[in-house]
Amino acid sequence: MGENNLYILGENVASQENAEELVVVNGRGDTLEADTPAEHIDKEKERIAIQRAKDRARTARWDLNIAVFLFAVLIIVIILLFQGVPLEVVAPVAIFGLAMVWLCGWRQGRQLFERYCEEELARLEYERTRQVEETIEEAVRKAIRERHR
């Protein structure tokens, strides 16, 4: 039994001697759909690009505008407390202000995610086309070399 073998019901289905290309099979209902390794890699790259966009949006949503808005809510609460306004009035104002800060941050994060996702997917598509162009360029160079021999 080798290290790189795959056994199903005692039968060696994938080994170095039996080096057929394996595919990932997705079953949805009555149909089976096979993904080639290249399609699987493309889907994985797309998933990574979307995750990168989520991470960028998550860190960028709390910018200076949100911080200033939060500071303004804090100042309003402090002023109301110093003016002797009852806590029953100040507490809802503070809660409303914090909810608005969260809502603005969430909305801004969603907008940034959409923009970053478009950027990441466009960059991924550019990399794909660049790879195709490079392989075409390599093929042309190879053909030219063969012709000159």
Q: Separation of termini?
A: 48 Å
Number of helices: 3
- Residue-averaged pLDDT: 75
* Overall radius of gyration: 29 Å
The secondary structure category is mainly alpha
Low-pLDDT parts are: 1-32
Helix content: over 70%
- Spell the H/E element sequence: EEEEHHH
The count of DSSP E runs of length 2 or more, i.e. the number of strands, is: 4
Could you describe the largest sheet, including whether it forms a barrel?
2 strands, antiparallel
Count of domains: 1
Shape: rod-shaped
Quaternary structure state of the chains depicted: single chain
Strand order of the largest sheet: 1-2
Strand content: 5-15%
Task: Describe the protein.
The chain is 70% helix and 11% strand. With 149 residues, the chain is mainly α. The protein has a two-stranded antiparallel ribbon with strand order 1-2. Strands 3-4 form a two-stranded antiparallel sheet. A hairpin with a 2-residue loop joins strand 1 (6-8) and strand 2. It starts with 5 loop residues before the first strand and ends with a helix.
Summarize the structure.
The chain has 149 residues and is mainly alpha-helical. It contains 3 helices and 4 strands; from the N terminus they run E-E-E-E-H-H-H. A hairpin with a 2-residue loop joins strand 3 and strand 4 (31-35).
Tag the structure with descriptive keywords.
4 strands; two-stranded antiparallel sheet; disordered N terminus; 149 residues; 11% strand
How would you summarize the topology of this molecule?
Layout: E1 6-8, E2 11-14, E3 24-28, E4 31-35, H1 37-60, H2 64-82, H3 87-148
Antiparallel strand pairs: 1-2, 3-4
